Structures are given as structure tokens and as C-alpha cells.
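Sequence, please.
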């Protein structure tokens, strides 16, 4: 049986940013010269068409990502947020997140965001080392971080998160320790951490190919990861997902939709969506996306997801959560199926290897499994015969 309820989460992509970071392979474009207002018109057309095709019943989370959504002017932000409310009925207490770059959130913009219903901001800080920020192509400095957090708090935002990166070129354990101390001194309710991945079609990949990217050794990168985990836990932020830490009640509700393999709307250039066992990817280019919305839904690819693939996805994303996956949740998505019945041999092998443990009706990563997560997730990928 395919999931019947409409998605309760909405992802919206704003693909513009002030510059392209050296490690970034996201669908983003430098703002200068872009038809931003035409893009917002196109987004509204896609919202209208989407809500007709799959009418929303109740929206619990909205996440606006990019790019850097906060490059919108206050007027554009006001207009954009109003269009979201027109097409998606937000439940009382819904989580409404916007990604931001430090230095792009002046008081006027924050006021527009607050008045438009935004109640959570995720700042892409990455590091508190100015030389390192410049090396990775970020346009902000540490002073911008402090100013942005102060402005957000003054505007009434208390649900704030920052991203930190480790394994960056030229980064040492000592410089990382300083960044972690500064990050924790801000006393925020949520922190995300990411190891650098050198992705194709990035400046860092070209540098890596030319042997010009001085990355830390694997052992040093692991030391960084373990250090951040220890410090965040000691500061009262629970690790609820491999890369995410929060005070109780401040976990990212929107991202948890992904990790529980639940449906979500995906709107904007290059956005992904998943509903009724059907996945889509939108056209990526800004003008091609705009043009496509004049003809209908701006799809690049659409595909049905077989039950076998959906069950594998459930395990791969669900085990990212430290609470793990339960047979009860599995049965809700796949009536008549059990985790053990579907994956018994894989589960036994992962338990024998010390990577998974069973607690009640939940399978979850062990401490060693957290460190070797990709090995665990990869075990659930099979040839689809459904």
C-alpha cells in the first residue's frame, strides 16, 4: 500500500548566492544579473500547480534552502513568504526554517522574515578562522557571524543553528578546537557538522586533481570529528543524527521528515520531491526553470519508487538517526512487512560486525556504527527487482 497522506513538509529552493564557495556543488548561481523577481513569479506558479495536483492538508515544516535565500531583498522576502502562506496551510506551531549566510541578515530583512512566519534560521558559518573562511571561498568573516546572531536574537529569533565544517584544507585540530569553543560560546540550541567532501564540478575538485589541495590526513579528520562530538555532548547538545546536535526540543523537524522517509513537497530550480511513492527532480537552470513553469510543472525527471527501493531508503536514511528505525514505523509505511523479514541477513551481519544493535523493536547504530555509517547504509543497497 502506498502512503496516502499528503506531504506535511515543504522544501523550497532559492538558487542565488553572492558567490560560489570552492567546495559547493549545490544548484546555485551567483546573484548578479539574475532574474530574481521572475524566479519568484515562477515559484508561485509551481506552488499553485503543485497544490492543485496534490492538495496539502496540513503543513508542519517548511525549509527554504539554497543557494543563500537571504540574498533576497526585504521586499522580495516579504513577497516570497506571502506566496508560501497562500498555497500551503501551515499548522499552528509549524517549524519554518530559512538558510542564511552571515552578513546577509540585516534588521530589515530579519523583520520581514519574522513577520512572514519564519521561526528558525540556519547559518552557514563553517569556521571561526578568517583565513580558513577565505581559503574555502566564503564571503563572510567572524565579525559577520557575531553580528548576524546578535541581529537575529534582537529580531526575536531563538531557534538558531549554525553549520561547522571539518577536514578543510589547511585546517588543524588546534584551529578546529578554537572554532568549536567560539561556536559553543554562542550557546545556540542546534549545531550541524559536516566533513568536507570534494565533489566534482567544484574548484576544490580541480585543485585536488592538480594535487593542490592540502587536506588533513584521515586520522586527523577522525580526531576532529570525535573532538566536536565530545564537546557538543559535554555542552548538553544531544547527537540525534550523525551530523546534528541539539538541545531537547530543538531538533530539526523538517530534516527528520527526510530521515524517516516521509513524503515532502520539493519546489524550485533543482529541488527534489517525494510523495505517494513517486520521486521528482526539477529543472536546474534558472531561466529554463522559469520558462518551464509557464507550461506546467518544471520537471527534469520523475520516477516511481518500488516498494523494495522504498524499504531500502527507509533503512538507509532512518539509521542516520541515533534513535534508529523501529518495526512499528516500518509497518506503518509498509503494511504486512517487518524489518527482520526484509533484511534479516543484513541485520545479522551488521550486528555481528558491531555496527548495529537491537533495543526493543529498534535497530540503531552502535558507537562504531556511527563512525562507519556509510558502510552500514551501503549494506541496504541491492539490485531492485520489484
Amino acid at each position: 500500500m502506498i502512503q496516502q497522506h499528503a506531504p506535511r513538509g515543504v522544501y523550497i529552493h532559492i538558487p542565488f548566492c553572492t558567490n560560489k564557495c570552492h567546495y559547493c556543488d549545490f544548484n546555485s548561481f551567483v546573484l548578479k544579473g539574475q532574474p530574481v523577481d521572475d524566479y519568484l513569479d515562477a515559484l508561485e506558479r509551481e506552488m499553485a500547480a503543485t497544490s492543485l495536483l496534490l492538495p496539502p492538508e496540513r503543513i508542519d515544516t517548511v525549509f527554504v534552502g539554497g543557494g543563500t535565500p537571504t540574498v533576497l531583498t526585504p521586499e522580495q522576502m516579504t513577497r516570497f513568504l506571502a506566496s508560501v502562506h497562500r498555497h500551503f496551510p501551515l499548522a499552528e506551531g509549524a517549524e519554518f526554517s530559512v538558510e542564511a549566510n552571515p552578513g546577509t541578515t540585516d534588521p530589515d530583512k530579519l523583520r520581514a522574515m519574522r513577520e512572514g512566519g519564519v521561526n528558525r534560521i540556519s547559518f552557514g558559518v563553517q569556521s571561526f578562522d578568517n583565513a580558513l573562511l577565505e581559503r574555502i571561498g566564503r564571503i563572510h568573516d567572524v565579525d559577520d557571524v557575531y553580528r548576524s546572531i546578535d541581529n537575529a536574537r534582537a529580531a526575536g529569533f531563538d531557534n538558531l543553528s549554525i553549520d561547522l565544517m571539518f577536514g578543510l584544507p589547511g585546517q588543524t585540530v588546534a584551529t578546529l578546537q578554537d572554532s568549536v569553543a567560539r561556536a559553543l560560546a554562542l550557546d545556540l540550541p542546534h549545531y550541524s557538522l559536516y566533513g568536507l567532501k570534494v565533489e566534482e564540478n567544484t574548484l576544490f575538485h580541480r585543485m585536488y586533481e592538480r594535487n593542490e589541495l592540502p587536506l588533513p590526513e584521515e586520522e586527523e579528520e577522525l580526531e576532529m570529528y570525535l573532538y566536536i562530538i565530545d564537546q557538543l555532548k559535554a555542552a548538553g547538545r544531544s547527537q540525534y543524527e550523525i551530523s546534528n546536535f541539539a538541545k531537547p526540543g530543538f531538533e530539526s523537524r523538517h530534516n527528520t521528515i527526510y530521515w524517516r522517509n516521509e513524503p515532502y513537497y520539493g519546489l524550485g530550480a533543482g529541488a527534489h520531491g517525494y510523495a505517494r511513492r513517486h520521486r521528482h527532480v526539477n529543472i536546474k537552470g534558472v531561466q529554463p526553470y522559469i520558462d518551464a513553469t509557464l507550461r506546467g510543472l518544471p520537471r527534469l525527471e520523475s520516477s516511481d519508487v518500488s516498494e523494495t527501493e522504498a524499504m531500502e531508503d527507509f533503512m538507509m536514511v532512518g539509521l542516520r538517526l541515533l534513535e534508529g528505525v523501529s518495526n512499528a514505523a516500518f509497518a506503518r509505511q509498509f503494511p504486512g512487512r517487518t524489518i527482520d523479514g526484509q533484511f534479516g541477513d543484513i541485520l545479522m551481519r551488521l550486528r555481528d560486525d558491531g555496527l548495529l544493535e537491537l533495543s526493543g523493536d529498534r535497530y540503531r547504530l552502535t558507537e562504531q556504527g556511527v563512525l562507519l555509517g556509510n558502510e552500514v547504509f551501503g549494506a541496504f543497497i541491492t539490485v531492485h527487482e520489484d
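The first helix runs from residue 36 to 53.
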